[in-house]
Amino acid sequence: ARELTDRQIYFRDRDRNGRPTVRHDAKASTASHHVGLAAGSSPQQTAGSSHHRRGSGSGSGSETGTAPQYAPARMIEQGVDEILHLKMLESIVDSETPSTIVLATGDAAQAEYSPGFMAMVERALKKGWKVELVSWSKNISGMYRKPEWLATWGSMFRVVFLDDYAEELLEM
């Protein structure tokens, strides 16, 4: 499943002359914030296979002509975060010697099925890993800035603010 880009949403809601269109269906107001899946398919099936698209393929026809089901974009993001939590733990467990984890997020909140990035960072630090947290200064949780937390980990934990590199990043 993939989320619609802002560009796709913009053009989806415009007619051929570029004027905004009025959408009367119930899903119109929520569709721009959701990810579409063909009914009865998984994201893996939908992403690369053309037989789930309307009017193509020779399948049973149960998917043909059905409206997509929408999953909230927030749920998709939650799933991505939890996969990253697991991948971090895999790296920590599978490596013989601790190294450095570079984590690009400012999120410290708990996830639905895991304790969140903050807990994963603490686990890594307890196992002797160094952690570099990369984030914009406005998007970083205050949990990562608490003086007592920073003092506990000393040079093992470092925050790299993207603000310092904004000019270079925007030139690309």
UniProtKB/TrEMBL annotation:
In terms of CDD domains, this protein maps to: PIN_LabA-like
Q: Which GO terms describe its cellular component?
A: nucleus
GO BP annotation list: protein import into nucleus
- Give the compositionally biased regions (Basic and acidic residues): 1-27
* Top-level taxon of origin: Eukaryota
Region of interest called Disordered, as start-end residue ranges on this chain: 1-68
What name does the UniProt record give this protein? NYN domain-containing protein
Q: Which organism was this protein described from?
A: Friedmanniomyces endolithicus
